[in-house]
Amino acid sequence: MLLLPQVLVVASLGTYTSGDIQITQRITSITKTKGNTASLECQIKTDMLKKSVYIHWYRQKPEQPLNRILYISSNENFVHEQGISEERYEARKWPSNSLLSLRIHGATEEDAALYYCACWDTRAPEPQLLKPMRLESMLRNKRSHRNEKLAHHNEE
């Protein structure tokens, strides 16, 4: 039997609302065979036709800070951060149903991380996104729960 290495890509679960913007990510995790494409989706409920709205995709690897992968500017340009491959990290936007996706082509172990989408209306006083402190506490809770499971398993 041939065993293929797998890559786990995790997306934040939940809904965040601020003002007239609502961000929803429903996928909890995706596991892909190495080399395949992972697709993450995010729904942002706001007037997607506004020229003042920027959409961002962030990634957080274990024990590392949150890093932006790319953003979609108000004039619909897709802007990748330095060092991020445009061929591997592909963003799509469907204004008709406010759906956004991030596709990671040729997934590797290096892609295993938490992924978040965020929205910024430039008319608002600050970006509308999940705050890093909240992300850290979510990660800490998941790590603590995982460590408790391991400790319990080792006691048996």
Indicate the topology.
Layout: E1 6-11, E2 14-18, E3 21-25, E4 29-33, E5 38-45, E6 53-60, E7 67-72, E8 78-80, E9 89-94, E10 99-104, E11 114-121, H1 132-155
Parallel strand pairs: 1-11
Antiparallel strand pairs: 1-4, 2-3, 3-5, 5-10, 6-7, 6-11, 7-8, 9-10
Task: Please characterize this protein's 3D structure.
By secondary structure, the chain is α+β, with helices and mostly antiparallel strands. Helices cover 15% and strands 42% of the residues. It has a single domain (6-129), classed as Immunoglobulins (Immunoglobulin-like), CATH 2.60.40.10. The protein contains 1 helix and 11 strands. A 6-stranded mixed beta sheet has the order 4-1-11-6-7-8, with no helix packed on it. A 5-stranded antiparallel beta sheet has the order 2-3-5-10-9, with no helix packed on it. Strand 6 (53-60) and strand 7 form a beta hairpin. It is globular and about 40 Å long. Residues 1-13 and 130-143 have low confidence and may be disordered.
Which topology does CATH recognise?
Answer: Immunoglobulin-like
**Gap between N and C termini, in Å?**
31 Å
Largest sheet report? 6 strands, mixed
Secondary-structure arrangement, i.e. CATH architecture: Sandwich
Report the uncertain regions: 1-13, 130-143
Instruction: Name the helicity range.
Output: 10-25%
Q: Secondary-structure element order, as H and E?
A: EEEEEEEEEEEH
Radius of gyration: 17 Å
- Please, what is the average pLDDT? 69
Structure class: alpha+beta
